[in-house]
Amino acid sequence: MNALAPSVTVRPTRFSRRLVASCFAVVTFVAAALPMAAQARSAPESFADLAAEVTGAVVNISASTTVEAKNRALPQLPPGTPFEDLFEEFFNRRGQGNGDSAPRQQRRSNSLGSGFVIDPSGIVVTNNHVIGDANEITVIFSDGTRLKADIVGKDTKVDLAVLKVKSDKPLKAVKFGDSDALRPGDWVMAIGNPFGLGGSVTAGIVSARGRNIESGPYDNYIQTDAAINKGNSGGPLFNMNGEVVGINTAILSPTGGSVGIGFAVPASTASPVIDQLRQFGETRRGWLGVRIQNVDDATAEALNLGSARGALIAGIDDKGPAKPAGLDVGDVIVRFDGKDVKDSRDLPRIVASAPVGKTVDVVIVRKGKEETKQVTLGRLEDGEKQANLQQPPTDTPTVTKQALGLELSGITDELRRRYGIKDDQKGVVITKVDPNSTAADKRIQAGEVIVEVGQEPVSTPADVTKRIDAIKSQGRKSALLLVANSQGEVRFVALSIE
Hints:
The protein is an alpha+beta fold. It contains 9 helices and 29 strands.
């Protein structure tokens, strides 16, 4: 195990047997009684009945990984050096020599985590990081029964794994609940295997929903103050009906211990993934084939959206489902398959949860007007590359102009060589950026190429200034630029024109 860093970090909650036990001081605080008017709802008198009802379905996970230790090479000694034979005998005797007959040493690593049974036939759910690349997985039940487990499937993006055990009798199982119905302040209860102690019950409230901790593309965590520690990974987070509303996955801690900030994968995110793993042994996520970016206030004003919302399409995959459906760069997706897209983080999660091959309605805003497109979803591949927009080369004049704090020029062979611009890139080259301009604040750089202004293509500096003048005449405060870097990757940038 790596030493725990003193800084605050998000940590998976798997526990390794190699950790040295630590002593924790426990301080009890007595809260002053609150006025009755402030107590909208009293706390449960006890969680004992709920814990007794579901504990039998919560398990400990022991994952063992055996790897072959690398042999240490013999010291490089010059031929004929005294003691050369002695060194060779010493290392070979300990299995560290270079000889073919030297025995290989193996290193065994054990880790502990949590899980829970969702099907009496023996289906167990845990975190992917609990089992990792384990050679042997053992599921330990509350009555001490130990059963070997096989991996049904696992997913690194949501950090889930589904296991299968064989039992002579039906197992106690729990069901998933409606995590979308949770509200900050609702009571929840966690059961797991912190620090290898097993069967530990903690309780708290939902602190927040929709947390993004930058752990994956579909982050949408439930935050709770129920104590979650190393070893709780993969364990269930229950609502007061005994339903699993989350899978405990990570903690935010400066020490590695609970400080009251734990994160659980919502049941609404986990359930579709678990169903796919059970059915196919792998995930089969929907794929739209677009590259997106967020919409800020300036971009929303430039696009006449009214308010910052949706996901702005910055690129289209030529082989993806979006292109034949008529989606285009500059469109803003505001609704997908009946679900509102509040910001760009929502779209990948909604698309991924949709079935492959399903035809869905996609509501976009194009030039200030809503349109509905129908898209038949493809399947997301792990090796999917970002869209690479290619446009035919054109000859452009070398006239230089200034606008929005930018010095602009038509694309020439010399500028292509200087800035490494692709041969098929079309647009207007930015040759200088005023360091005191809004463009500099938005990190526009010399060598980048303006492809569109106000969602209209430009090929000369004069095109840029004409488009800006037209936008001003419409009473708009911002101009939306589509800017490409030297690799051809594009992004939208809204610049103030006041």
